[in-house]
Design goal:
251 residues, alpha/beta, Metallo-beta-lactamase, Chain A, seven-stranded mixed sheet, 12 strands
């Protein structure tokens, strides 16, 4: 029986060592399903985001286990602090994953004591039992390593780039894997829906545009956005056009 909090995930094999997972559970509906990534390097398994539910994170773990060979260092990269990306983090931490994120996630994840989970339960009008059945035993905590600027992870000559790309929220990062020309964009890039701008104003949107223009300069074959379908680099232009139009609108 499919867990309530799983959604309808689809695993996409981008290369023998890089996977994207789309369609993980999201409380806003199936059309807004959450996405995640798994990158295998010589020494590491790198998870990009952990899903909105414990069931989603467990699916990511099982997907990785099917491909894992030998002992690997586990690393979880959080693209930002929103529930659809972090609520599953306990599952991967319990497996031994070290967690990295932008330093501005701190105020949302540190000393949470269940407050964020209760906020989501209240926001969607669930009772406690339904919230527990869907979300699972969510436990948020401060990441093990916080970054303030672009960071490159090296593993036997292979690079994974953590790019600071605020705009949607100040804690946003994107993850670029040059060897496969794959970008895991989190909510820096939206596919199928307009960029969600309600967490900022014109100043933040202008900054968002500048980061999208920076991403456009990368050699990208495939983008895994935070929600929606896998897409091409052309989706960056659609996001930029929307945000530019938003900036021109009267306050």
């Amino acid at each position: 029986m499919r867990p309530l909090g799983l959604g309808h995930p689809v695993v996409h094999r981008i290369s023998p060592a890089v996977f994207a997972v789309t369609g993980l559970y999201h409380a806003a509906g199936e059309e807004f399903g959450g996405n995640a990534g798994i990158i295998f390097t010589a020494r590491r398994v790198i998870f990009v985001d952990a899903g909105m539910t414990v069931a989603s994170a467990e699916f990511l773990w099982q997907t990785a286990c099917e491909q894992m060979q030998g002992h690997k260092e586990l690393l979880l990269l959080l693209t930002h602090h929103h529930s659809a990306h972090v609520f599953g983090m306990r599952v991967l931490k319990d497996k031994g994953a070290r967690v990295m994120a932008h330093h501005k996630v701190s105020s949302f994840l540190e000393n949470d004591n269940g407050a964020y989970k209760r906020f989501i339960i209240d926001q969607y009008g669930w009772d406690e039992q339904k919230g527990e059945e869907i979300l699972g035993k969510v436990m948020l905590s401060l990441p093990d390593e916080l970054i303030t600027s672009d960071t490159v992870l090296m593993d036997d000559g292979e690079e994974t780039h953590l790019l600071v790309t605020p705009g949607h929220v100040p804690s946003e990062i994107s993850v670029y894997h040059p060897a496969t020309r794959t970008l895991f964009a989190g909510d820096t890039i939206y596919q199928g829906t307009p960029p969600m701008t309600r967490f900022g104003g014109p100043a933040e949107w202008e900054g968002w545009i500048s980061h999208l223009e920076r991403l456009r300069q990368l050699d990208i074959d495939l983008i895994c956005p935070g929600h929606g379908d896998l897409c091409s680099k052309e989706e960056i232009d659609r996001n930029i056009a929307y945000l530019r139009d938003k900036c021109r609108q009267p306050a």
